[in-house]
Model the fold of this input.
Amino acid sequence: MTVELLKGRGKLRRLLCSLLAALMLLPWVMQGAWAAGGTREVKSREIAVVFDNSGSMYDAGNTAWCGAGYAVEVFAAMMNEKDRLSVYPMWPVEAGGKKYSSSSPLTVTPADDLSVIRDMYTPEAWNTPIETITAASQGLASSQADEKWLIVLTDGDTFFENGESMNGSKTEERLEEELSRCNAAENVMYLGIGSVAVMPKVSAGKNVYYADKATTTAEILTKLTAMSNMIFGRDELKLSGDTLEFDLPMSKLILFVQGSGVGDVTLTGSEGKQLNAVSQYAPSYGTRGAGLDYAGVCAVDTSLQGVVATYEDCDAGTYQLSYSGSVTSVGVYYEPDVELSAFLADEDGQPVDMDALYPGTYRLCYGLADKNGNLTNSKLLGETHYSVHYDINGEEQTLESDESGWVEVTLGSSDHLNADLSATYLNGYRIEKDNAGLGWPLDGLTPTAHPTSRIELNGLVLEAVNALELEFLTLENVAEELKIDELNDDEVRASLVVAAERQAIPSCDILSVWKEFKRPRHEEFAEPTRWSLLNAFTETAKKYSPARADQCYRSLTRLFGLDGKPAELWKR
Done:
């Protein structure tokens, strides 16, 4: 047997093994324990809110303080798992029995009790110091988050610096200078509250700058929710009565039902199955206001209450919304489960196996893809734009398009294809990918020479099919055993540490797996069994890159004995 034939047979075997590995995951896909197709990057965000609690916010009859606090609480309830929000008050506040200031902000994550925000009380409210913006920006500078956002909420028409009033145009000039400085390092959003609030004009650079004005309490909530959607890559889904319909899978769906006595918020699919919310939170108006000259005169808007219900991993389809209480408004906000994708395809548009990339002419396909890897131009993505930069042996080409598509490329045996792409959708939400982000080799794609030997495909395919049948039988038997073996909390904790040591998961994800095991998003994993623990691992692995996910799955196979060999996780 020639060397070339051996190489050819080995390559085909690797391809068939990859297929077998993918097919082995089908039982988990059917039960929601495994993400089909590609993975979606989950970003972490650090959000700093400059909260204007100056005296004018608490003037008699003014509910701006109440509306701003409520809007921030709702904003916090809509954060993703890895996000953190810090409130930098212009004047010290008391909340939850603790004191906070611009040098010691009130910080919350999605896992915290968010009602501490509505509990904020300002003992002494004075002017509008610009130094609070500086403090918030400095706080962001120390963060290691993927994205940094500075949000300024203020009704001020005159700011103070070093205790001195900046009258006339000085406020606008100084504010524009300070926000421009901040915007060079982080994304900045500015919301002017009331009719007299100054509206600075800042020319955005590489980071986002957005400014708007809210003249009523209701507008504060509406505008800040719109800012939230821009930050998290969401949009509002239009309701038809109480019916929701979308043609894309959603990584997150948020229902915001406002009104008094709201409860029993449910979402039911077309087949009558009720979706399980990952969280339900009831934001409400604050009552404490401010002291000093404002004690007893702070107006409270009791209409500010409702329920924020969050759902994840929703399949495309039609859903029915129901609720109880005296409902005044319903908002539905969605985050499409899409990722920027680029791949080589043949003339028929069929993806080419990278292990079988030979010299020739291909289509470089690009676009936003759903979790099954299918490119989509759904209207729910809003206005889209693609910027495609690629080069072959350093010869750069650029393509701009408002829709997904493809460009023809011709590759020789020694050519290197590199790509750097970006996509914007949903009012400017942006995704960028280079070779590494696309799952390509760091030095680009390079064709290999055509095989020179004939490969006995029939025998290899038959061998693979027989092996596949055996793999399915083995997996089925192991799965049944895992489903009846229960675990206590101590056993689970020990298993998580072992899994991290074996590099199935990074140590930073131990808590994520633990939370999924204790509160699984799929009801069929409610029992504390080894099978449910496996699901907790695979749910967490959805966010990994393809290479990292492959490493995780291989480790889990050994740890849980999915290949029929003794499970390494229990040999302790």
